[in-house]
């Protein structure tokens, strides 16, 4: 059974943290943003449970009144400001946080990009030189990209089927992103495999189209959504490699602490990627079958690609305070 001494020893540091955060927030010296308010909410719920235990078992202890005051003040902040803070947090995530996470590990991101790009180039060369063998790797590719059709020709897919098609596509893509993240638990082996096979598949599609003289078909079928899709898969690979790095080389932290910290950031990456993949899946499900024509397909594909990486460059730059903290944090 927990004694009063054990309870105080284990819980008082969090009560003190909650009291400090509440005082700072109420005095407006440190509004702290959404992260600060969400931390107060977490500590408030824990302190409320502690207060119930104190009142039931040690009602005369002086800490009961002290904790009551802290919890009461925290209640006002939590229920007065948590919901707007969460909304602000969502906006902040998609305007800054996600792009900062993408840019946060440049070498890891470059590794993921190369594991997609190099197999894509090799796959294109393979399919161009030996289309028979390459088509065995992607049996549907030769049917999809080597058949001539008029520029801008509609694929003739009914609207209802387009919706189902789009849903299937972004469900599959999000599953790939989650697997690339979870692949970090295999030391990054599964993550690397997914990046390589997706890049190789893209390259085989391109090589078969080039060999058959149907490059425009490849552009219309793949480019509008494919550039954004492959960007997202590379970023998902970054999430997996972050997890793998923490698992293999936790640095000065314990392995559990390192994995927990990186898993939080990696899950945030996957959440942002999932939203981008919904956009890519919608383009593939609705835009690609409609046959807009080569020019518009190129504009859409490269436009989405430039918007994605432009946001990484422009919105992903760390703020001075986060840059300072990152400099002193273990990688």
Key attributes of the depicted protein:
331 residues; mainly alpha
Fold blueprint:
Layout: H1 4-26, H2 33-57, H3 63-104, H4 106-129, H5 131-137, H6 139-145, H7 159-182, H8 189-212, H9 215-248, H10 255-287, H11 294-315, H12 320-327
Helix pairs in contact: 1-2, 1-3, 2-3, 3-10, 3-11, 4-5, 4-8, 4-9, 5-6, 5-8, 7-8, 7-9, 7-10, 8-9, 9-10, 9-11
| Mean pLDDT over the full residue set | 79
- The unreliable regions are 159-166, 320-331
* Total strand segments: 0
Distance between the termini: 41 Å
Could you estimate the helical fraction of the residues in percent? over 70%
| Largest β-sheet summary | none
Question: What coarse outline follows from CA principal-axis ratios?
Answer: elongated
Strand content: under 5%
Number of helices: 12
Taken together, the total number of domains comes to 2
> Element order, helices and strands?
HHHHHHHHHHHH
Radius of gyration from CA coordinates: 26 Å
Structural class: mainly alpha
Oligomer: single chain
Could you characterize the architecture of this molecule?
- By secondary structure, the chain is an all-alpha fold.
- It folds into 2 domains: 4-97; 105-327, no CATH class.
- The protein is 82% helix and 0% strand.
- Helix 7 packs antiparallel against helix 10 and helix 8 (189-212) runs antiparallel to helix 9 (215-248).
- The protein starts with a helix and ends with a helix.
């Amino acid at each position: 059974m927990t004694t009063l001494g054990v309870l105080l020893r284990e819980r008082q540091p969090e009560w003190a943290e909650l009291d400090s955060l509440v005082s700072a927030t109420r005095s407006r010296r440190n509004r702290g943003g959404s992260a600060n308010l969400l931390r107060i909410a977490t500590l408030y719920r824990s302190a409320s449970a502690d207060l119930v235990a104190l009142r039931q078992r040690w009602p005369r202890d002086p800490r009961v009144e002290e904790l009551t005051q802290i919890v009461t003040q925290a209640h006002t902040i939590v229920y007065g400001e948590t919901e707007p803070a969460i909304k602000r947090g969502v906006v902040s995530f998609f305007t800054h946080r996600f792009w900062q996470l993408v840019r946060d590990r440049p070498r890891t991101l470059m590794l993921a990009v190369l594991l997609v790009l190099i197999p894509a180039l090799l796959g294109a060369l393979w399919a161009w030189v030996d289309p028979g063998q390459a088509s065995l790797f992607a049996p549907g590719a030769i049917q999809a990209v080597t058949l001539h059709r008029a520029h801008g020709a509609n694929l003739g897919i009914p609207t209802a089927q387009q919706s189902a098609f789009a849903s299937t596509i972004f469900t599959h893509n999000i599953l790939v992103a989650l697997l690339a993240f979870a692949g970090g638990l295999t030391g990054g082996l599964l993550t690397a495999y997914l990046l390589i096979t997706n890049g190789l598949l893209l390259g085989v599609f391109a090589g078969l189209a080039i060999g058959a003289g149907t490059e425009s078909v490849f552009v219309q079928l793949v480019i509008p959504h494919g550039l954004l899709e492959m960007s997202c898969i590379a970023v998902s690979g970054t999430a997996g490699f972050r997890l793998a790095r923490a698992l293999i080389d936790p640095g000065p932290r314990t392995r559990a602490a390192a994995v927990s910290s990186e898993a939080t950031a990696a899950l945030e990456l996957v959440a942002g990627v999932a939203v981008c993949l919904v956009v890519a899946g919608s383009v593939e499900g609705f835009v690609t079958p409609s046959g807009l024509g080569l020019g518009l397909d190129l504009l859409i594909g490269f436009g989405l690609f430039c918007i994605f990486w432009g946001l990484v460059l422009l919105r992903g730059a760390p703020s001075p305070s986060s840059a300072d903290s990152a400099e002193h944090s273990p990688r």
